[in-house]
Amino acid sequence: MDTLLKVENLRTVFDTEEGTARVVDGVSFEVGRGETVGLVGESGCGKSVTALSIMRLVSAPGRIAGGSILLEGRDLLALPEKEMRKVRGNKVSIVFQEPLTSLNPVFTCGEQVREAIALHQRLGRKESKARAIEMLALVRIPDPEKRYGAYPHQMSGGMRQRVMIAMALSCEPSLLIADEPTSALDVSVQGQIIELLGELQERMHMAVLLITHDLAVVAQMVHRVIVMYAGVVVEEAPMEDIFRRPGHPYTEGLLSSIAKPGSRGGKLSQIAGTVPDPLRLPPGCRFSDRCPKRFEKCTIGEPPLFELPSGRLSRCWLRGEGGKA
Amino acid sequence: MSGIDDERILASAPPAGLWSQGWGRFRKSRVGMAGGGIVLALYLVALFAPLLAPHDPIAQGDVPAMRYVPPSAQHPLGTDKFGRDVLSRVIYGSRISLMIGFLAVAITVVLGALVGAAAGYFGGAVDAILMRIVDALLAIPRLFLLLTCVALFSGSMWLIIVLLGATGWMATARLVRAQVLSLRNLDYVKAAEALGAGGKSIIWRHLIPNTLTVIIVAATLRIGGIILTEASLSFLGLGVPPPTPSWGQMVFEGREALLGAWWLSTFPGMAIAVTVIGFNLLGDALKEAFDPKRFV
What we know:
The structure holds two protein chains of two kinds. By secondary structure, chain A is an alpha/beta fold. Chain A has a single domain (about 5-90, about 175-320), classed as 3-Layer(aba) Sandwich (Rossmann fold). Chain A is built from eleven helices and twelve strands. Chain A has helices at about 45-55, 80-85, 110-120, 125-140, 145, 155-170, 185-205, 215-220, 240-245, 250-255, 295-300, and strands spanning about 5-15, 20-30, 35-40, 60-70, 75, 90-95, 175-180, 205-210, 225-230, 230-240, 305-310, 310-315. In chain A, helix 3 (about 110-120) runs parallel beside helix 6 and helix 4 crosses helix 6. Chain B is an all-alpha fold. Chain B has a single domain, classed as MetI-like fold (Orthogonal Bundle), CATH 1.10.3720. Chain B has helices at about 1-10, 20-30, 30-45, 50, 65, 85-120, 125-140, 140-155, 155-165, 170-185, 185-195, 200-235, 245-255, 265-290. In chain B, helix 3 (about 30-45) crosses helix 6 (about 85-120). At the A-B interface, helix 2, helix 3, helix 6 and helix 7 of A face helix 1, helix 11 and helix 12 of B.
C-alpha cells in the first residue's frame, strides 16, 4: 500500500519538576493511503499525545524531543509554523473527544464550518456558506439550511460531533485523526458516529487514524491495530488477528475486559494495577509489573519489537527467540 | 435510534444567540430594568440639560437677595451662597459626572483589556513583567497619587479623566488576563488551532467575543466607583475647578452652611447616590443575565 503517514521513532516528553516524562518514547508506525488504523491503549498510554504530536499541537510543558513525522514524504517536524498551519485542517484534520465544548458558543454551527473552509480555501461568502451547508448535509445533519443558523447549545452531543466532523473534513484532508470521537457520547449515538466515519472515509478516500481505549469500537471499521502501552507500541497486527490470537499479554488483557454478548453472569476480567507513571517505569518490560505471564527475563531487559510471521509485531519476550511460547 | 436525536434538535426553538438570550434574561430582571431606567434617565437629563434647567447654573444675579433661598416654587431645590439655582446646577452637574464616569471607564477598559489579553495570551516573560507592573501600581494608594497629580498640574476635567482612567485599569487587566488564560486552553480554541487557525484569528474570533460580556459587566460596575472617586476629589477641593458645576464640589461647598441651608449638600449628594446605585443595579443585572454558566 502507498504510504501516507510515516511516524518514525517519535519521542514526546513533558518537562516536569520531578524530571522529564517520556510520554511517547520512540513510537514508529505507518498509515497507508485510504487505510483505517486503530491506535488502542488505556488512558495515559500516550496515544492522544501521539495524535497531538502529528498535528504539532503539543502544548507546554510538553515538547517533541525527536523522531520524524513524514506526511507524503515531507517531514512535518521540520516545517516552519506558518507552513504547518496550512497542513492542519487541510491535509490532516483531527476530531477531539469533547463535542460539547469543541464548538465556540458565540457563533452558529454553520458559521464555524464556514470559517474552517475559509481558513484554507479562497471562496466568496456565498460560496463558502453553500459549501458549509453541503458539509452539514454530508454528515447527515437533518435540514442543514436551517441548522446552519443553530448555536451549539441548541444541538445534542451527537449532532455537535457531526458538526466537528464536518469542520474537520471540509477541506478534504488525506488523513483524519479521530481521538476518542465517541467516548463522550451515548452508546446509541456512538454506533452512528462510527458508521458515519466509515462511510465518509470510503467516500472521500481518506486515511483514518482512530484512537480509542475501546477495542470493540475499533472492530467495526479498522483494518489494522496498533496497541500502545506506557509510551511504546507493544503490538501491531491486522484486525482479525488481534481478536483471534493476540500477540501480547497486554492485548489479551484488553480483549478480556470487553463485555461479550452472550457470556452472561461471568465476571469481567480486568488488568490488575494501573499504567505506570512515565517517570517511574518498571525495569525491563514496561508491562512486567502487571503481566500475568511474567518471567525472569521480563524484569531484566526491555524487549524489542519482534517481527512475527505475516507482518505482525509484538514487544514481548515470549514472542522472541528463546521465548517460552 | 437517530429519531430521538433528530427530533430534539428540530423541535427546539428558533436560534437564539448569546446576546439575545442574555437580553431576554435581562428584560425579566426588575432590578436590571430599574438600574437601566435610572441610567437612561440620567443620560437624558445630561443630554437635555439646557432644556430642563430652569435657570442658568453659573451666572450670579443679585447675590445678597438671592443667596440661601430655601426650596420654593421658583427654586425647587433652593439656591446656594451665590444665589445660583441648585436644581439647575444638579442638572448640569450630571454632565460632568456621567462624562467623567464614561470616559474614564473607557480608558480603563481599553488599557486593561490590552494589557490583560497580552499577558494572558503570550504568557511567559510578557505575562510576568506586565503582572508585576500591575502589582506595583496596585500597591500605590490611589487617592494619594490622584491628589498629588492634581495638586502638581492644577486640575482640569480632562486631566481628571485621564488620571482616573490611568489609575483604574489594573483590576480590568487582571480580569481579562484570567479570562483569556481560561479560554486559551478551551477545547474550541484547540479545535480552531487544529483546523489551521493562526493567533490573530484565534484572538479575534474566539478570545475577544468570549471575554466581551465580562468586560462590559465589569465596566458598568466600575462606572459607579469612578463617579464616587471624582466626587471625593471634588469634595477635597481638587476636582473639576469651579464654576463648572460638579456634584462632589457642590457637596463640598454646601458643607460650610450645612446647618442653615441643608439643601445645598443634600440634593447633589442624593444625585451621586442615585447615580451610583443605578449603575450598580444595572451592572449586577447584566452580570446575572450574561453569566457564562447560564449558557448551555
